[in-house]
Write a structure and sequence with these properties.
Elements lengths: L1 H18 L22 E2 L7 H17 L4 E16 L2 E18 L7 E5 L5 E2 L1 H7 L10 H4 L10 H17 L11 H14 L7 E2 L9 H6 L4 E12 L2 H23 L1
Parallel strand pairs: 6-7
Antiparallel strand pairs: 1-7, 2-3, 2-7, 3-4, 3-5
């Protein structure tokens, strides 16, 4: 059927676009952000009576930013890495999700100020900004002979390393389809992923996996301690929108619309 081939092509474009998300500045989404870049962090693992108010405040922030011509997007992070990584410029602070998906905040037309949160599970992706930082893949803007000896080795992501992250991507996509949305990518599913990466990729062996729950009030402490630590933690945040992310979301919505039309035509 023509509809099936169109949807397959859209899925292909969506997947390619998702994998292009490698330069979105998502290696630090929480730490020392200006008021205009408020990440609106919110833990997603436990019930919280303040959550409806948080969704409303986040939505108003997004709307006000859009009115000023600033493109932001609400995201849901899976796994939180905090600490510092040595780069060719020196130590770089990290406060980033291991993986994330796009989301949206929807205001009820019949009940103003009532906002629902909807993760867009089919946009889930590894945080390639975080991966390239650990792997020493960042390119200096300008090079000279005096800098060359201090650069981290550029190894490329291939062979076994590529296979590891490909497997993680596949696991993320599978777990994001759990029949119970509230149980998708919870702590017991996230910890084995980072342990697999730590055991398989040398550059990640310095990451310590914490068994304690994450406390946002200790953010600065964890980042400034340098030693990277991973929390199996789900959290909402707002970040600048990469063009690829906007396109990816549009493709995901187009896929959903096409699927609905096909179902109605049956």
């Amino acid at each position: 059927m023509p509809g099936v081939s169109v949807i397959s092509y859209l899925r292909y474009l969506h997947d390619v676009n998702r994998k292009l998300l490698q330069r979105g500045g998502l290696e630090n989404v929480l730490y020392r952000k200006a008021a205009s870049q408020n990440p609106f962090y919110h833990q997603f693992d436990q019930p919280d009576p303040a959550r409806p108010a948080h969704w409303l405040s986040a939505l108003r922030h997004l709307q006000n930013s859009e009115a000023r011509g600033v493109a932001l997007r609400p995201l849901l992070g899976f796994g939180l890495v905090l600490g510092q990584v040595e780069t060719w410029k020196g130590w770089k602070r990290v406060a980033a999700p291991f993986a994330f998906c796009n989301s949206r905040l929807i205001e009820d037309e019949d009940r103003p100020n009532s906002v629902q949160f909807e993760p867009l599970w089919d946009t889930i992706t590894l945080n390639y900004d975080l991966l390239t930082l650990f792997l020493g893949q960042e390119e200096p803007d300008e090079l000279d002979d005096s800098d060359s000896t201090s650069l981290l080795p550029k190894q490329g992501v291939g062979g076994q390393v590529l296979a590891v992250f490909t497997q993680i991507e596949q696991d993320l996509e599978r777990l994001a389809c759990d029949l119970n949305p509230d149980a998708r990518l919870i702590g017991p599913e996230l910890a084995p992923m980072i342990n697999y990466v730590r055991n398989s990729v040398a550059e990640f062996r310095s990451v310590r996996v914490s068994n304690a729950p994450y406390e946002q009030r200790r953010l600065a402490e964890f980042v400034e301690s340098r030693s990277p630590v991973f929390f199996a933690h789900r959290f909402f945040f707002i970040a600048p929108a990469a063009g690829e992310l906007t396109t990816m979301t549009a493709l995901a919505e187009l896929i959903r619309q096409s699927e609905r039309k096909n179902q109605n035509a049956l």
